[in-house]
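fyi for ur records
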Amino acid sequence: MTSAGSGQPQPRARAVAVARHAKLWLVPTVLSCLVALFLGLLYMGGIVNPNGSLHHLPIALVDNDQGPPLPGQQQPLGAQLTQAVVSGTPTKAVQWRRISQAQMQDQLASGKIYGALVVPAGFTRSVGALTTARATVRPTLTVLTNPGLGSLGSSLASQITQRAAHQSSLVIGRQLTSRAASQGADPTLRVLLTDPVTVTTAVGHPIGRHSGLGLTAFYYTLLLVLTAFVGGNIINNGVDAGLGYTDNEIGPWHTRRPTVPISRTQTLLLKMIMTAGIVVLTSSLVMIATVVILGMDATHIPLLWIFSYCASLTVGLGVQAINAAFGGIGQVVSMFVFVALALPSSGATVPLQAVPGFYRFLAVFEPFRQVTDGVRAILYFDARADAGLDRGWIMIGIGFAVALLFGFAMTRYYDRKGLLRLGLRPA
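which gave:
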């Protein structure tokens, strides 16, 4: 063990002289530039044009208008309006789901739709009454939002639905003005009839006031992943230093412990055991900080803690497996796997239906999306399995198994090949 001030000769190399060696610059420069380039492409590529990337954003279309139709027409206005909404929207951008009121409420409560457009009962009758003395209220269409799926996704759905409702109102207005003109209605009434329908917006599935407008699920997941990622690397470096395979430097103090003769497989096992123990504390502290101290809205607390622990543990084991397989660049690789590729494909801030296809492909297996779906289901959708919790558990289980299999397969291979770590020599 050595430390500052132990009587060692003072170093004589000069930084300026060493910096003239091109090979010293090569690897750090190339890796840093690649990281900067790919981070810029990955992060901005997923958010620069959500409207242009829309792909089958699910929105409900509910027609409660049962007629009867207006004179001279074969269908109630509700049926005509919903058909006009579907045909007037690009088929690749929106997936209109023509469902019942009960089905709409169920899909809002399970996070399967981002919003809804509801045609009320008696809509045809209220529209027809506008040209008569029986008119008492202006016809109304209702736009429902689902803030539990995130503020941006709910906002996109609301904009699309309101625009469709307004266009439908103009179509109905042209029919009414034509009919009013043939009946000799006064000009004031004909102006009113050009846009006869009022569009109101309401929350379809409310969430708590301390839910960050639907973003607490994303940030809570980010905390779980980051603490597991950073903690995993801290454990990796701490174990290597404790076993004598790397130097330990804190400020001006430097230590180097005697090298412990241990195989790569046993080293990985040690790191994973420590990860499993330390994650109990880190996942608990994340919950204490967010739920207890900051007052984040959360229910199903025991389930949330178990899910948080299992998710963080899987990420932590994945970090150890990648570090064991890739060595010095393992931290960069795991950063891309668990952070750089994961965040823009999570669907937590920008809906997956509003990002390019590459990110939707990543979302199939990237861990951040799976954890976000599970956390969102617990926080906003009453821990319903079909709201994403079942997928979250399944993918956590798969990730857990992959981390173990990949990590130990690589270390066993290195051990069998005699690729021993620094300080060890074959017997």
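The chain has 14 helices and seven strands. thats all i got for now
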